[in-house]
Design goal:
3 copies of one chain form a homotrimer. The first copy, chain A, contains 11 helices and 9 strands. With 325 residues, the first copy, chain A, is an alpha/beta fold. The first copy, chain A, has 2 domains: 156 residues, Aspartate/ornithine carbamoyltransferase (Rossmann fold); 152 residues, Aspartate/ornithine carbamoyltransferase (Rossmann fold), CATH 3.40.50.1370. A 5-stranded parallel sheet of chain A has the order 7-6-5-8-9, with helices on one face. In chain A, strands 2-1-3-4 form a 4-stranded parallel sheet. In chain A, α3 crosses α11 and α4 packs across α5. Chain A is globular, with a radius of gyration of 20 Å. The two termini of chain A are 17 Å apart. The C terminus of chain A is likely disordered.
Chain lengths: 325, 325, 325
Amino acid sequence: MAQNHDATEAFRGRSVVSTADFSKDEILALLDAARAFDRYHDGPVWTPQPPELQGRVLGTLFFEASTRTRLSFESAMLRLGGSVLGFADARISSLSKGESLVDTIKVVEGYCDAIVLRHPREGAARLAAETAHIPVINGGDGSNQHPTQTFLDLYTIREAAGRLDGLKVGFMGDLRYGRTVHSLTEALMHFDVDLKFIGPENLSLPQELREHLAAHGRSGVEVEHLQDAGDLDVLYMTRIQAERFPDPMDYERVRHAYRVDRAALEPFGEKLKILHPLPRVNEVAHDVDDLPGALYFRQSRNGVIVRMALLHLILGGALPGRGDA
Amino acid sequence: MAQNHDATEAFRGRSVVSTADFSKDEILALLDAARAFDRYHDGPVWTPQPPELQGRVLGTLFFEASTRTRLSFESAMLRLGGSVLGFADARISSLSKGESLVDTIKVVEGYCDAIVLRHPREGAARLAAETAHIPVINGGDGSNQHPTQTFLDLYTIREAAGRLDGLKVGFMGDLRYGRTVHSLTEALMHFDVDLKFIGPENLSLPQELREHLAAHGRSGVEVEHLQDAGDLDVLYMTRIQAERFPDPMDYERVRHAYRVDRAALEPFGEKLKILHPLPRVNEVAHDVDDLPGALYFRQSRNGVIVRMALLHLILGGALPGRGDA
Amino acid sequence: MAQNHDATEAFRGRSVVSTADFSKDEILALLDAARAFDRYHDGPVWTPQPPELQGRVLGTLFFEASTRTRLSFESAMLRLGGSVLGFADARISSLSKGESLVDTIKVVEGYCDAIVLRHPREGAARLAAETAHIPVINGGDGSNQHPTQTFLDLYTIREAAGRLDGLKVGFMGDLRYGRTVHSLTEALMHFDVDLKFIGPENLSLPQELREHLAAHGRSGVEVEHLQDAGDLDVLYMTRIQAERFPDPMDYERVRHAYRVDRAALEPFGEKLKILHPLPRVNEVAHDVDDLPGALYFRQSRNGVIVRMALLHLILGGALPGRGDA
């Protein structure tokens, strides 16, 4: 209970710009809180009664379209009894016409109790958080950070594997530009995990992240092919985007090499958990969907649960009683 | 009361893809339930207190813009105390970027309790309903089905005429491509009605629907001009679209021939009910609006009532006490 | 209390098309009511419990994008416990396809309890209000009227200066095309104020407004430069738009001449209140933001409060107890 109290204190009124701003204990407290919203494992998410955020308003400012992230936050806020306003796309907003982001934030904070900001410019969320008198949640700022994606990834792994320590986690696909790969890798450094990175040479880990790993006394194993990755508990897939390859032939070759199907995953056994931030195009074959470890749609649903917990903690509700999960 | 109980059982958790999926009894049960939300004949619709769908979320996925259908569903859900999320137009959604409809549905079902889907592709709603673990309501799939439009058409006729059996119903305009004409014609086969079809030769009934009528022992009378239609209780107008005519001159001629004004409707007397799915362009003259039988705006308002009843039945609320209407 | 009762009666079910439709007493009653929603001067706006507009729906029909106005109305409605539906931009609406505004209004009034209309055509709000059976609030019709902007401007000045009578109010920038300038000028004629107009020659007051002033026995002083305006209690800034100037060089010259910074405002002392309808581009320097009289962001926040009061009065709630502010 003391821990819950601490969590509430640690999150109340706080902005969420980067996973690096949160300690291991704070992250675990958030994941614990999320569990309380996840009462029914195969049913709907839990809706608190009476709705604790009734009358509170979340502003969703999407200067870049991201329908999944937007709808997931909206669902979380609505399920808590709150309301949502904002825009889905800078093209349909007249807010930004020649106006600085700082001015926009100073105006919008008069309309709502918290802001979710998606912006193409790296650092936009930090600037907004420093400007606003209300909490700002980063819903993705360029290639930089998308902390709630990392929180829901951690939540999904922990709920499915029962723990975070002691896991062998492989990342496969675009290791160079995949924002989710970098963010989750950084967050996993809080835990005792073995990291494997599986990707084509021209999309290998950025040197910066390698050094970051080394500085934390970790050394991720980098291999080119899944069969060389050794044993894995978790396989985190990402999409390889055509535009990374000047030569379309190279893309075609790589696209097929970094695609998994049921046969390719068989050696890892039933324990393997497969995650993907979605949307997938063809990098995970449809015959994988029925495997018990195919968690990507559950992972997407968990996004609502983790965001419910986050909004609940930030906007200051009392922590609900622990779930029995 | 037993019937109400049956209706609730028949609809709870069910998808609504095609009117053909519903029996005559089920359709009548829906129309009865709608009456309970239509307390005030010339005032606002009835809002249940306390709001029965509080905390429930409707996802409105409009891969094709249809502002009327979208706002009507949203109004219905909000009046029941529920909430709405989604997108109004595929152009502003990033959901579909290379992602299959099946994947999109598996993601979105994590955000909400029911989905309204509008999609340009015929069969999209059926596929979505087979995929989702939550109810999917077809808000129009290409030229195929738009079942709630048919339900509200039936509701409007029945409330205004006091019955469905024994009516003479004429359809006028685009009989070939008019989705509402086909759908309502099919649904009216449950009832003892006389059908008349009034339209230009090149936009006459599709052979398929003619055979369907014949298979049910009906033979709709087809005429080219309204004055040859004989007596009518109901005239269902539809818009003729310019793009159906390669020669603009043909369109101009037809457009004027299939336009009604107060003078043209006089022979049918005061009993004539005039319906139109809207928007109208010029096929119903403005001098018709003040006729007591001009029901098209009421028909639009009834859309909210029928959708309230449908959401209420599908999402499992107890049936409200019957209205006194 | 009698006055409150009168205000409720005067506003209930009423459309808001033009400030000229409201008497001085009605305007003051609205400003008084707004104060009740403004409990916490530096905190969030006051949310009534229980939410008085629960189950009521506001339709926001924006045929022209205006994100600020839309979000401000949405925030006001949501904070009162109501809901919102509509569209943000005519481009994403299919409502207007060949349909008359009158038909659109007759359809939409079936979906909601009040409409906020933004339309590029002058007179659109009046036409809509005459058509609808529910209240229509003008959210800006072309270069004509935007009455709630004027109400929030009056509220901001009165709260900050403690009164409206006896003030010296200067307007600076585009006096010719600035809709807010004309509207607020007209409304201020109800009060004993000194008006000064500061702007370039080619953007001076329209002759019509000059005659209007004269007809009310007022004569606004017109000067070209701020330093010639004499003493001021309030400076209302507006943006000068490049498209008003055929020659870009003229625009550049004027743009710099009608820009204020902290140094330029020093002569007016600490009492000066600075307003701006926003967005600003560069006509108010950022070093002005920290002055105690820089009210433009507060003015924007007050928009929510005044619109809460207006929706509360129009949709017929009982007036809340007076605030102690």
